[in-house]
Amino acid sequence: MTEERAYWLAWSKVSGVGPVLLQRLYQHFGSPKTAWEANSSQLGKVGGFGLQTLHKVLKQRSQINPLQFLKQHEQENPNFWTPADADYPRLLLEIPSPPAVLYYCGEVELQENLAQKPLVAIVGTRQPTEYGIRWTRRISSALVENGFTVVSGLAEGIDSASHCAAIKAGGRTIAALGTGVDVIYPAKNRELYKQILNQGFVLSEYPTKTQPHRTHFPRRNRIIAGLSRAVLVMEAPKKSGALITADYANEFGRDVYALPGRLDDFSSEGCLKLVSQGATPILKELDELLKMLGAIPQVSNVGNLTSDVEKPLPDLPPELHRVMKTISSESLPFDLIIQQTQMPANKVSSALLQLELMGLVTQLPGMRYQRN
User: Fold this and answer.
1) Which helix (H) or strand (E) segment is 370 a member of?
2) Which residue pairs from 60-64 have beta carbons closer than 8 angstroms and sit at least 24 positions apart in sequence?
3) Are strands 368-371 and 361-364 parallel, antiparallel or unpaired?
4) What was the pLDDT predicted at 331?
5) pLDDT (tens digit, 9 = 90+) per residue, 185-238?
6) Rounded to the nearest 5°, which phi and psi values hold at 61?
7) What is the model's pLDDT at position 127?
8) I need a labelling partner for 274 at 20 to 30 A (CA). Which of 79, 216, 323, 361 fits?
């Protein structure tokens, strides 16, 4: 795992290779290490690798020793996940652009990362009305009281109100930052930041000491959407970062909800637009919202825990049996299967393909596999 982490980290430092292109590399080669060791001809076969990008990669790659760089990087950034780590947030691995490195600080709860506890995002304008604040507090409190964790971005306005309400109700909350996890922005949220670390955690794709930059926050919004099963937009004008988060949610197949407002209210124009485009309006009956978000189905699943017994394995060749034994009804990333089987990537890939053809395994988005 250490080796795979080193190569994910190394790729994250190569300019010209963003999360989308890195995901293509991973899907093409099967591991970040294999991609790192590929020659120019092999890299050129990956979509998006033009000559200019190729030259950049070859030059920068020659200047980085992944294992040595990992050791140096961990001195200032002790807490981070890569897709090679089993506790990397599972839902993020399903999106087309998962961060190669995800830094965190605070009290991590593994159930949230493994998608065994539902996460719901609440986002909106930095200049909300009293109406927006009131409903944000009410909904955030209701969510945590019903077993959800609230995700937002620590910005002023709706974000801060959602974090505060979750904490006040005794629940958990997660903040995705557009800075390093040790940089508090805005500075006025210092106390809120400290409270979040006690009842949740903060995370970022930017290393420690990274200062805020206007380009960071739109990118941060994909993490908010990717972490969550649903995105609730409370108040948002027509040009709002919250609408970017909603766009990402639609792209990732997440549910989008919007709080309706007055037709002539500037702060509600974005929400009304979302509703007109198919977002589910948030109405007064919060029980209905909780039902749609899955609070009641989550409770009803308790009685079925003992019935989810894995079927006995059929007679398989040794390599297929070895791979199949690692896979359960919970999806696993390709890298983790390699790690657990201690087999070469190409053999694992071949075995998974055969198991798929036999109807025993299903491939999910993000190079993840689960037993049928």
Assistant:
1) strand 368-371
2) 60/13, 60/14, 60/15, 61/10, 61/14, 61/36, 64/10, 64/13, 64/14
3) antiparallel
4) 67
5) 999 999 999 999 999 999 999 999 999 999 999 999 999 999 999 999 999 998
6) -65, -35
7) 93
8) 216
Omega before residue 281 within 30° of 0, cis: no
Residue 142 phi, psi (nearest 5): -60, -40
Q: How does DSSP classify residue 87?
A: T
DSSP class of 303: G
Cβ pair 154, 121 in contact under 8 A: no
> pLDDT tens digits, residue range 271-325?
999 999 999 999 877 888 988 887 533 333 322 323 333 456 678 888 888 888 8
**Residue 365, CB half-sphere, CA atoms under 13 Å: how many?**
12
Q: Residues in the chain with pLDDT < 50? A: 296-310
Separation CA 228–CA 38 (nearest Å): 35
Instruction: Report the amino acid identity of residue 195.
Output: Q
- How many C-alpha atoms does 335 have within 13 Å on its Cβ side? 24
What structural domains does the chain harbor?
2-76 (1.10.150), 102-297 (3.40.50.450), 318-371 (1.10.10.10)
